[in-house]
Description:
Blueprint: E1 2-7, E2 9-18, E3 22-24, H1 34-44, E4 48-50, H2 58-72, E5 80-86, H3 97-105, E6 112-116, H4 122-134, E7 141-149, E8 167-176, E9 182-189, E10 197-198, E11 216-217, E12 224-225, E13 231-232, H5 234-256, E14 265-268, H6 273-283, H7 294-297, H8 304-312, E15 320-329, E16 333-342, E17 345-346, E18 350-351
Parallel strand pairs: 2-17, 2-18, 5-6, 5-7, 14-15
Antiparallel strand pairs: 1-9, 2-8, 3-4, 7-8, 9-16, 10-13, 11-12, 15-16
Helix pairs in contact: 2-3, 5-6
Amino acid sequence: MAELSFEGVTILGISGAVPANKIKNRNFTKYFDKETVNNIIDKTGVEERRISNDKTTSSDLCYAAAEKLIDDLNINKSDIDVLLFVSQTPDFRMPATSVILQGKLGLSKSTAAFDISLGCSGFVYALSIAYSYAQQAGVKKVLLLDGETRSKVYHPKDRKTGFIFGDAGIAAIIEKDISIGKSFFSLNSDGNLCDLIKIDAGGYRNRSTQETLKEKVVDNYGNIRTDEHGYMNGGDVFNFVLREIPKNISHLLKVSEFELDKIDFYVFHQANKFMNDYLVKKLKLDINKTPSTISKYGNTSSVSIPITIVDQLKHRTNGNKNFFLCGFGVGMSWASAIIPTKSMHISQIVEV
């Protein structure tokens, strides 16, 4: 595993944006009967999701979040030297969405901007990159944008995925602060498990054809999707989480010499309620330290960790706080981090 540490770098503030369109899953009975719908919701814990319209993209959500955060913190845009954009639902195949956002936000032409294509672990991975840049003498502030419109990836007639995923975007400002102690990261991957969560067609390995766009029954349960919609092997994903995540969390706590009671908040990727409840029980964590938004926003992939912070911890970050962040999923890829903060600003969520 890649183990990184940084000192004197922190998150100054975080903001979030979600689509105004709210879907109540128990009313989502267009393709399935009420009993089936209720059973799915009871297992996943996803009561509501925010779903973007056809025209709204991940960058629109991130732009709204960024403008809110920059305004709230009275940030001089000329002080932003790096822009990172995390997403697996970018605006275009090319150009990079980060560069579009640099222009739309009116940042300096000297701003470094690039995209990071990672799923559920993406925020923690991107945060480690942001911290690396922020340590450099020539960098004042890093703007980290993370957005997903995952509802567009999965087919509504596939009960395995159609009720789980929602859309959201966030913005975070990372900068130097000599009063902040060490941050620790553990970054991991296992590409041998890449088929567990995947879209088979529509890329450059298997390009789009009329056949890949056809709806088809994909299993004995009657689930329907095209080859250009995502699928997930839920059982094997859960086994992966059981096998890798608790030991990774324990390892990072050990190498960082942080005790469990020194962590103020454990923020996990919001995969589903059952999986996160298992982690809390397995690690014997205080439930009051493990905020959750799975019932409110569903699984928003890489955005789920920061949007949970914004939604659940707005009035709880005054003073010095230690965060444990853990993201895991598509790839398969997983990452954990221990992040000290000092009165981190959290903006009110914006609806788009």
